[in-house]
Amino acid sequence: MKTTDSEQKGTDMELEQYRTRLEQMVEEKSKDLIAIQENLEATNRRQALFIKVLQILQLEPDIPTAMNMALAEIGRYTGVDRLATWENHLDGVTYGCTYEWCNEGIEPAIDYLRSMTIEAGKPWFDMFEDNNIICTSDIYSLDPFISQMLEVQGVKAIAVFPLSQLGIHFGFLSFNFCWNKQWDEKDVELMSQISQIVSTATKRWQVEVSLQQSQRTMQKVLDNINANVFVCDYDTMEVLFANKPFREEAGQVPERAKCWKMLNAGLEGACVHCPKPQLLDADRKLTGVHFWEDYNPVTERWYTIQSMAIKWLDGRWAIMELATDITTRKHVELELIQSKEKAEEADRLKSAFLANMSHEIRTPLNAIVGFSSLLAETDEAELRQSYMSLVQENNELLLNLISDILDISKIEAGTIELTISSVDLHQLCKEVIATFLHKKHDEAVELRFDESSPQIVMDADKNRIVQVLSNFMTNALKFTTKGSITLSYTLEDNGQLRFCVTDTGKGIPAEQRDEIFNRFVKLDSFAQGAGLGLSICQSLVERMGGRIGVESREGKGSCFWFTHPYLSDTQSSLEIVAENEQLPIPKTTPRNYKPLILVAEDIDSNYLLIEALLRKDYRLLRAHDGSEAIELFNAQTPDLILMDMKMPGMGGIETTSLLRKTGTQVPIVALTAFAYANDKSLAFNAGCNDFLTKPVSPPELRRIVSKWTAK
Predict the structure, then answer these.
(1) Which terminus of the chain has fewer CB atoms gathered within 10 Å of its CB, N or C?
(2) CB 156 within 8 A of CB 178
(3) Helix segments in 416-532, DSSP class H
(4) What are the structural domain ranges in the chain?
């Protein structure tokens, strides 16, 4: 079938259109390939420039030559008119142009730009801090100071990159164009990378120049420096130089002597701690200064040593070491370490103290509060008596704990008081045994005093001896379930009295005997007590001039002992003199007369307790402070005053002093929670006739009141 002319024309037209499209596609692909080729060539040129500049700066030994060559390569590539490096000077005040390359027809400006104040150039450095780089074709958009400087030089466009090391700017690299430069992003990236290379090289050269300057002066100063200095060959370790202090300590240095022979006599090879491997890397590049410490067994001295690799006068690598004597510092450090350990131990003990006290205080308080509540709820006489016994027993536990805490605080403050008086030891020991016979709960345990102990009367602090013996007895009762507990004392040949409490209890394991007198140590964590008693006893015995110890066999029993000088010259500066006490003044009163007692007490609960104990036999009058006490005294003339020492406004000491100034002889009894010997002394000096401490014992309160109100 033949095609018509119209059909043939249509086909030809389609073929022509298809051919045209193919030609357009080929042309577009060619343009793309040309662009890719151009970009590739530009990238290759940039890489070639980068590598060449890097090689120049790394391999050229002369610094000015290297910088001029590098700037010329960069300048020709970028077409810049003026390319320059600027650096801060060592004086910290000025900066200036250090190297410059100018294109043909551009006059150099380096000669009058070598030194300017950093303050004047502050706009440059501010821009670096804000933008990191400056790249603009409009110089009038910059700070006026900069714009004017560039305008004089005919600059139309500028690019400035900071020179920095470890984030610190020390200069910049500037590209000045005297024509309207249009910036290419990749060229800016390349210039930024080149500025980083220049930064590194410049900083390295600054260090090398500084070292060269140091080497020129080193020879003159080393021999006079107040430290041991020596220099040895890096490879052979032969000593090249030793200063005067070094020679005075190690002796004259023989020719070609090895450094280790001079430093540590007797060594046959390099020192184990030789710093050489740490001073140069595998490419023999400096790694910095190595600091270390060493002890010289010959001189018995400690040194801190700075080791570094240097270029010696003849150009070879050498090791220089500067050793400073730190023996005194080492001794101080040891003392500081020991002090730190003591402080940490004190902190640990404080934490243990708080934990123990929390438990030990709450335990008797729990019983006191609980059984006190039950006392109010029960009418059975037998139960009430049982509850009262338990409350009293826990009262004693709490009071003993508080006494221990007070003793610990006095031991820490160094204010342990000793009140010396004549003591009959035979009678004292019998009293201790009698006291514990009432506290003993186990009938299978016999308490006894060794009657063979000699009859001795001596000057001593009776209360402190009783305190130590009571602690020994209390511990013996805790850990003895059958057998006996014996109290005894003997006079030894060395003039010391030796007191012993021997029991047949379970004994003490050998590994715990050395710790038994430490604070908070308890052989049985379930036994009552804070673990303070034996530690307090040790301090008291040592204060009295004796020693303390224990002999024990596990399962066989223990013997706690302490010694006391037979003739003691220890006197307390706070001893309470018995003469301070005044005898009660006899009075003639009616047969049914109830004495009037003025109670100066600001705490309601304390007054209510006194009222409950005394109201049956006495009339009571209350004052809430010292001023009210004086008013009531003048109005009522009481037979006795119970005076609290701490009250709001006028306290007990001041009130007593004022009453005594009136000439009154009415007995005044101090009733206070202040329990130290100096508190008692202050009360007597103010005019008190007697002294009672809180918490008050009901029988003791009645006895004292009866004593001073006796008819």
Answers:
(1) N
(2) yes
(3) 425-439, 462-479
(4) 58-213, 225-325, 334-409, 416-565, 579-709
Collapsing DSSP to helix, strand or coil, 540 comes out as helix
Q: What angle do CA 279, 285, 288 make, to 5 degrees?
A: 40
The runs of H, that is alpha helices, within 251-326 are 259-263
* CA 704 to centroid of chain Cα atoms: 52
Residue 152 corresponds to which amino acid?
V
Using alpha carbons, list the distances in angstroms from residue 553 to 56, 96, 449: 87, 88, 22
Residues in CB range of 500: below 8 A, 6 or more apart: 486, 487, 488, 489, 490, 559, 560, 561
Alpha carbon of 506 to those of 392, 479, 554, 582, 591: distances in Å? 29, 6, 6, 50, 60
Are the CB atoms for 195 and 163 separated by under 8 Å? yes
Using DSSP's 3-state secondary structure scheme, residue 72 falls into helix
Tens digit of each residue's pLDDT (9 = 90 or more) over 513-531: 777 776 655 555 444 554 5
Dist CA 481 CA 483 (whole Å): 7
H/E element holding 633? helix 626-636
Residue range 645-701, pLDDT digits in tens: 888 888 899 999 999 998 889 999 998 877 666 778 888 999 999 988 877 778 888
- Report CA 380 to chain centroid distance, whole Å: 60
pTM, entire model: 0.39
Q: What is the largest CA-CA distance in the chain?
A: 169
DSSP-assigned beta bridge partners for residue 43:
none
Of 545, 551, 574, 643, give the one whose Cα is nearest residue 602: 643
Q: Which residues contact 33 (CB under 8 A, 6 or more apart)?
A: none
Q: Say if 225-325 and 579-709 have the same CATH topology.
A: no
Q: Could you tell me which CATH number the domain at 58-213 has?
A: 3.30.450.40
Residue 571 has pLDDT above 50, yes or no: no
On whether the 579-709 domain is CATH 3.20.20.140, my answer is no
Spatial separation of the C-alpha atoms in residues 629 and 198, rounded to whole Å: 92
Superfamily per CATH, domain 225-325: PAS domain (3.30.450.20)
Which CATH homologous superfamily contains domain 416-565? Histidine kinase-like ATPase, C-terminal domain (3.30.565.10)
- Three-state SS string over 492-518 comes to CCCCEEEEEEEECCCCCCHHHHHHCCC
**How far apart are alpha carbons 177 and 180 in whole angstroms?**
7
Confirm if 473 and 505 have CB atoms less than 8 A apart: no
Q: 664: buried, middle or exposed (CB in 10 Å: 19+, 13-18, 0-12)? A: middle
3-state class of 135 per DSSP? strand
Residue 377 CB neighbours (<10 A) = 9
Among 694, 623, 695, residue whose Cα is nearest residue 659: 623
CB 523 within 8 A of CB 533: no
What would the mean pLDDT of 358-364 be, rounded to a whole number?
66
pLDDT band at residue 377, thresholds of 50, 70 and 90?
Answer: confident
Assign a CATH topology to domain 334-409. Answer: Helix Hairpins (1.10.287)
